[in-house]
Design a protein that fits this description.
Strand order of the largest sheet of chain B: 8-9-10-1-11-19-12
Order of helices and strands of chain A: HHHHHHHHHHHH
Oligomer: heterodimer
Shape of chain B: globular
Shape of chain A: elongated
CATH architecture of the largest domain in chain B: Roll
Pfam families (chain A): BPD_transp_1, OppC_N
Family (chain A): Belongs to the binding-protein-dependent transport system permease family.
Radius of gyration of chain B: 25 Å
CATH topology of the largest domain in chain B: Dipeptide-binding Protein, domain 3
Largest interface: A-B, 31 and 38 residues
Number of helices of chain A: 12
Helix content of chain B: 25-40%
Structural class of chain A: mainly alpha
Structural class of chain B: alpha+beta
CATH topology of chain A: MetI-like fold
CATH class of chain A: Mainly Alpha
Membrane topology (chain A): Multi-pass membrane protein
CATH architecture of chain A: Orthogonal Bundle
Helix content of chain A: over 70%
CATH superfamily of chain A: MetI-like
CATH superfamily of the largest domain in chain B: Dipeptide-binding Protein, Domain 3
Strand content of chain A: under 5%
Distance between the termini of chain A: 33 Å
Largest sheet of chain B: 7 strands, mixed
CATH class of the largest domain in chain B: Alpha Beta
Radius of gyration of chain A: 23 Å
Number of strands of chain B: 21
Strand content of chain B: 15-25%
Keywords (chain A): Cell membrane, Membrane, Transmembrane, Transmembrane helix, Transport
Subcellular location (chain A): Cell membrane
Number of helices of chain B: 15
């Protein structure tokens, strides 16, 4: 007979997490590509002032709509601004919003979802109705409504993007919490008298982390896309400061004069969004036990 | 094959690149054949809002149609502004007399002019009806402000129409009779149709309205036109707000003429695509002026306003637009009488571009670290381009313009509620020197938060004493030359107080397929011109 004092031999998975990570990322060249792209763009965003050949706001009417040349690698726009420099500075907005907004939304949404799922009752009903209400709007529409009310500017965009993603996280977290709550180890914790916050932090949150993390990685791409869409519509980053979305917006009226802003920003958005999606898929493969094993 | 997210993204990327390559590097569009016997013109507006000259909220596109469907009492030579009283040509009035004191104008109407759709002959009854609506305070109609000076109207017989003015106006033909708002309506048709008149109008013009839909107005030549019948059977006025779509429609030959895109580099790009394209441009075109809101801190400080003036380089903005633009010194375009030139101004009113002086003035006013001012402007390309250049120029003088770029109609609505601190305005004015001041700087035109005001977004004459006395003096002056002297004094006063800054003039431009011959050259005039002599030549 085994004593309770002695540790129970845990059932170990057939592969360790490290082995899984290695298999997921190293085994696929596309993952290496995606990781390299993302790291490159993060570096570009961080070192923008060192990398950009010109002031992204400086106008020059001597070189309107210039073709790519040795001086201007991606040409200039209708104000004679250097397109490459604008793209480099524009990456800062995309990266900051793309990475920060899903993290904020995950923190807020998961907290709401876990609390609602664990305690149930009136708070649960309130949160669920709120989620249903917000989920009834597609994220872009929701973002447009909120930003029309709040206006543009850095903090407002961050708030808009975060709010747009909160209901998704809250719903996933709540559903997972409901499932985890029924597990014997949670019942056991309650039975031995563990305090509720401790149960949530030690037993619920770690066990619902996988879907939340997967969602977060996938939504980095969405956040970048959404920020670009808002800026394109004139609700995001304010001119003259560049973001990939408003570079496309500015370029659209001038597509025959200089297509390079649109080509450049479009290419950058596609590349980054594609890479984040690839990583997101890989993280899902890694963390989802049903697919991973 | 299952469509995964990755495959979807890859495919859409490839499709996007392919579309772009075709768009950009495809051969310049050969002019495709359009509808037989139809000249088509596409304007930068979303949809027709009406073809009734007295309706409010008309767009530039509507004006084009209205101008073909209606006539006024007088007209200017096609493609020009009538500058002096002798420049006007007869239209529905065959001749006119003006009294010595320039207060009584008698028009002798042309006989036998027919309205469209069998509504009979145009007589002084219709003219009385048209002008009567404009001077009746109970009738809501567009352009009422142009008729403010009318004391009474009279029709002694069927073919005589007499206007008596409150104040002398040697330029009544230019300030009122020639404007679109004074186009003669058929009283019978108007009363019979009511609201339907807006889209089924009856005028005396060379074309009548055949049909309208959400995006175009089809006009057909009126066989009983009082002058030579129109040279081409149909004119289609299309509405394509998107600049890229409009440019593509022109490049592919679907439309013969399009409203140009007034942004730097557009004309050179179009010439590169097809060197034969003709550009018809009005000079001076629109007056682009910048309102500084005198009730908005810190713009209430004259030193800050002077800093703005020193920080903005109008010549550089004009050079960005190339041949379409000239820099402005005062509020009246340099091409028109009443304008002042920099050389004839005293040195302190010349405001030679100088960021150093601007920063000095800001420091004096208590802003050594510069200022930040929120403002908004329209997303229409001429507005947004000018404001983005101004924003960049101001930045060099430590003035940070926190600029929102919003929908064009919304901008106008918000401006009318007196919400903007720095409002750019683009308006076309005829060579009537009092008009820009009456509309933009007179106390009665003050913009009010309840929306009941008009275009004085600076609150000049309300927040600080303005030019209202001088304007009265100018309006009471029957002699044209003496009137101009007073106007020049007003210009100097505005340069001292700086409630409104002249930035640039910007031509209205239409790109035309060389297969269309207009029948005249466009030199100046309003942002629309007659198409009754236009013909397809190849």
């Amino acid at each position: 007979m085994t004593s309770l004092d002695q540790p129970v031999e845990a059932v170990r998975p057939t592969r360790t997490l490290l082995e899984n990570v290695t298999a997921t990322f190293i085994g696929r060249p596309s993952m290496i590509f995606a990781a390299v792209v993302i790291l490159t763009f993060i570096a570009i965003a961080l070192f923008a002032p060192l990398l950009a050949p010109y002031d992204p706001l400086a106008q020059s009417y001597l070189v309107i709509n210039a073709y790519p040349s040795a001086e201007h690698w991606l040409g200039t726009d209708q104000f004679g601004r250097d397109v490459l420099s604008r793209l480099i500075y524009g990456s800062r907005n995309s990266m900051i919003f793309g990475i920060t907004a899903p993290i904020i939304a995950a923190l807020v949404g998961t907290t709401l979802g876990v609390v609602a799922g664990y305690f149930g009752g009136i708070f649960d009903r309130l949160v669920t109705r709120m989620i249903d209400l917000l989920l009834a709007f597609p994220d872009l529409l929701l973002a447009i409504i909120i930003s029309a009310a709040l206006g543009g500017g850095f903090w407002n965009i961050l708030a808009v993007l975060s709010i747009a993603f909160v209901p998704g996280f809250a719903r996933v977290a709540r559903a997972s919490t409901l499932a985890v709550k029924q597990e014997p180890y949670v019942e056991a914790s309650v039975a031995v008298g563990l305090r509720t916050p401790l149960i949530i932090l030690r037993h619920v949150v770690p066990n619902i982390a996988a879907p939340v993390v997967v969602l977060m990685t996938l939504w980095v791409a969405s956040a970048i896309r959404l920020e670009a869409a808002l800026s394109f519509l004139g609700l995001g980053t304010r001119p003259p400061y560049p973001s990939w979305g408003n570079i496309i917006r500015d370029g659209l009226n001038n597509i025959f004069g200089s297509p390079w802003p649109i080509i450049g920003a479009g290419f950058a958005i596609t590349l980054v969004v594609l890479s984040f999606n690839m990583i997101g898929d890989a993280v899902r493969d890694l963390l989802d036990p049903e697919i991973g094993q | 094959m299952a469509l995964t997210r990755r495959r979807f993204l890859t495919n859409t990327t490839a499709a996007g690149v392919a579309t772009f390559a075709t768009l950009q590097f495809g051969a310049p569009g050969a002019y495709a054949q359009t509808e037989e016997g139809t000249i088509s013109i596409a304007l930068a507006a979303r949809a027709p809002s009406g073809i009734n000259p007295q309706q409010s909220g008309l767009t530039g596109g509507d004006n084009w149609a209205i101008y073909q469907v209606f006539n006024g009492l007088v007209q200017s030579r096609p493609g020009t502004f009538a500058v002096t009283p002798d420049d006007f040509q007869p239209a529905l009035a065959e001749s006119w007399d003006v009294s010595e004191d320039a207060r009584t104008w008698t028009y002798h109407l042309r006989q036998g002019v027919q309205f469209h759709h069998g509504y009979g002959e145009m007589t002084s009854r219709d003219v009385m009806f048209t002008y009567g609506r404009q001077i009746d305070p109970d009738v809501i109609s567009a352009g009422k402000v142009l008729f403010n000076n009318i004391e009474s109207i009279d029709a002694p017989d069927d073919y005589t129409f007499v206007v008596t003015l409150v104040r002398p106006d040697p330029l009544f033909n230019a300030s009122t009779a020639v404007t679109l708002a004074a186009s003669i309506l058929s009283q019978d048709a108007f009363e019979e149709k009511g609201e339907d008149f807006n889209f089924d109008p009856v005028g005396t013009g060379p074309y009548f309205v055949e049909s309208t839909d959400e995006s175009s107005i089809l006009l057909t030549a009126f066989p009983d036109y009082w002058d030579e019948p129109a040279a081409t059977e149909h004119v289609r006025v299309s509405f394509i707000a998107d600049t890229t779509a409009r440019t593509l429609a022109f490049a592919s030959g679907q439309v013969d003429m399009i409203e140009g895109v007034r942004q730097p580099g557009w004309i050179p790009t179009m010439r590169q695509r097809d060197p034969d394209t003709i550009f018809d441009a009005t000079a001076p075109g629109s007056f682009n002026t910048l309102h500084l809101n005198l009730e908005y801190e810190p713009l209430d400080d004259i030193r800050v306003r002077k800093a703005f003036r020193y920080a903005i380089d109008s010549a550089q903005i004009a050079s960005a637009f190339g041949e379409l633009s000239t820099p402005m010194v005062g509020i009246i375009a340099p091409q028109f009488a009443g304008s002042v030139t920099r050389e004839e101004l005293p040195e302190e009113l010349q405001y030679e571009y100088s960021p150093e002086k601007a920063m000095e003035l800001l420091a004096e006013a208590g802003y050594p670290d510069g200022i930040t001012i929120p403002a908004y402007t329209s997303q229409r390309e001429d507005y947004s381009t000018i404001m983005l250049i101004i924003q960049e120029q101001l930045r060099a003088s430590n003035i940070n313009l926190d600029l929102d770029i919003i929908d064009h109609a919304t901008m106008h609505a918000e401006n009318n509620l007196a919400k903007n601190s720095v409002a750019l305005n683009s308006s076309s004015f005829p060579p009537v020197p009092t008009l820009p001041f009456l509309q933009r700087l007179a106390a009665p035109a003050d913009a009010k938060p309840d929306g009941s005001g008009q275009g004085n977004y600076s609150h000049y004459g309300v927040a600080i004493p303005g030019i209202d006395d001088l304007l009265d003096q100018a309006q009471d002056e029957p002699d044209f030359d003496k009137r101009i002297e007073v106007i020049e004094e007003i210009e100097r006063k505005v340069l001292e107080d700086l409630p409104l800054l002249g930035i640039i003039t910007l031509s209205y431009v239409i790109a035309r397929n060389p297969r269309i011959d207009l029948g005249f050259d466009v030199e100046s005039g309003y942002a629309y011109w007659p198409l009754n002599q236009a013909r397809i030549v190849s």
